[in-house]
Amino acid sequence: MKSSEMEAQLYCIHCNNNTPHVITYINEKMKHIECEECHNAIEFKVDIMKELYKEVYDRISTKPSRITEEYKQGLDEFLSKIPIRVISKPYRLIRYLNQSYKIIKQYKK
Ligand SMILES: [Zn+2]
Description:
The protein is α+β, with helices and mostly antiparallel strands. It has helices spanning 49-73, 75-108; strands at 3-12, 17-26, 29-35, 41-43.
């Protein structure tokens, strides 16, 4: 078992604002999201989440192979691309997580 954490700005229904959230992964699977402001937390135990886990995992897991391919094309080119890649990819992932979070919120009602 491997546990890792990621920080992201997500919309918190309790704070009614975008706040820093800590996302905890267990074996690359999203397990827990907690608002750092009010400590409202969401645990993923529902079966519907398996599909979401898979999607999120696929998005994360395709990243290293893409970077490796680009690495082969040339180190200089690769290094010049890093700042944009590092910023844009997590941002897209965060946007995706924000969308998913809204779906989870609706599902829980
Ligand atoms: Zn909050």
